[in-house]
Structures are given as structure tokens and as C-alpha cells.
């Protein structure tokens, strides 16, 4: 049954140094979507805000063993991970404690490699490990990018989007050269898209002409159900599976599996 599964998880960062662009919404809903398509998923909350943890229905302050202890070498991922019952995937939870990790990490050897080393011990348990990055290029984000095979960039099609994107693509190139020769840009995901806005359509077309196949076909619309879901501790794809936002993230999960050559396994209802 599991013979045709990959031996080791594909590890993808959801990153964009811009704040509030939809990283966490994408991380939670992609994790749940992949789980619905029969994939074994771990969602790593690399942001001290702990939004991915809470949005997966896990109380971030109740998680006494969390990513902080893992990064400073005091706990294994296997001890810290918690099942998201609403989402059907595992979460490596975080809370404000994680902001202290920056200071501890600076003093460590291989300080950018701590997350990679910790995740390598559970990589065979999953098909996908998704890392929700904070909106900074901190040592935490470097740990994410140094430990991943690829980056998924959610973005809004706004006027300055292309400019911000070239900074991010340059960062990815630098990390590729200096820290992680496995790192690749998996794709750009257009989110919070409003088809009524001509400007968004123009930026979207520019993205396609600059980045070609690196732009995912799926476009996630602006949809209030996706914004409401976290307050119920549920991914949007579970909270209201027939909403336009949920359907987009379900399609995105399928597109990603196909893009990486994985196999869709519809989960028994
Ligand atoms: P940060 O940089 O702070 O980590 P982020 O990039 O993770 O932010 P989110 O928290 O996912 O961004 O989203 C920012 C806000 O936009 C949230 O209130 C979220 O509910 C809302 N949002 C995200 N995607 C959508 C969407 N497709 N439709 C409507 N609202 C959305
Ligand atoms: Mg976030």
C-alpha cells in the first residue's frame, strides 16, 4: 500500500517577506487539501505569531513542547508534533517563545541548519512537510529555506508585487548558492484575487509572461470564508468546503501533487 510513496517527504517553504499576503492561509489550506488528497502532511509553524498552529485548531499556549525546544535541541519533532484533528495533518506548533530562538541560534554552530537536521528524523513519516515562514528574512526563515527543497510564494497581484518578488527571488538564489543547493522555486500562487480589478488582471498577465510555468494555474480568489475559518480553528477547505476559496485550495493541492510527480489518493469519506 505504501510501497509507491516517496521514501522521504518533499519539504516546501511558504514564503514571502511581505506581511499579510496569505502565507499562513495558504499553508493551512494546502496542508488540509493535500491531506484530503491522501497525502501524509506535517505543517511546521515557523512564525512566533503561531497563526498556523491556531488556525489548525491547536491552542498555541497549551503546546509546552513546541518548535522552540526542537530548534535549540531540547526536544525531537516526534515529541513536539500534534495532530490537527480538524485538518487531518500533523502540526509542529509555535508560540511567542519561538522569537527567543533567534538569540539561542546565533550562538550555535550550524545555526541555519537546525530545522533541517530536526526534520530529517521524521521525513520518512510524511509525503509533504510545509513550512509557514514569518514575514521577515530572519534566522528562523533562513532555517526554513536552508531545510527545504522548494519555495511556494503566495502573492497578491498588486502594483508593487513584481518589485517585491525580484528581492525574494534574489534571496532564494543567494540561499541556493550559499546554503542549500537543493532549493528551487516551485511556483508563484496568486491569492486574494479579485477578477473585477483590471490592475490585478494586468499584474497577473505580467507574472505569467515573466515567470511562465512557474505561475500555478490555480488562482485563489478573495473569499470571506477563508478569512472566517481560523476563528473556528479549522482550515477553510474543511470549514466550508463548497466555498470558492475552499475549491481553489483543493484544486491547488491537486495541481501541486501533479507538479511534483506525486500520486493522488482520495481519502475514504
Ligand atoms: P503574516 O505576514 O502576518 O504572517 P500572512 O502572509 O501569513 O501574514 P495571512 O495571515 O494568511 O497572511 O492572511 C492575512 C489576512 O488576509 C488574514 O486576515 C486572512 O484571513 C486574510 N486572507 C488570506 N487569504 C485570503 C483570501 N483568499 N480571501 C480573503 N481573505 C484572505
Ligand atoms: Mg502568517
From TrEMBL:
InterPro entries: AAA_dom, DNA_Partitioning_ATPase, P-loop_NTPase. It comes from the Bacteria. SUPFAM superfamilies: P-loop containing nucleoside triphosphate hydrolases. Residues 10-184 form the AAA domain. This is Chromosome partitioning protein ParA / Sporulation initiation inhibitor protein Soj. It comes from Castellaniella defragrans (strain DSM 12143 / CCUG 39792 / 65Phen) (Alcaligenes defragrans).
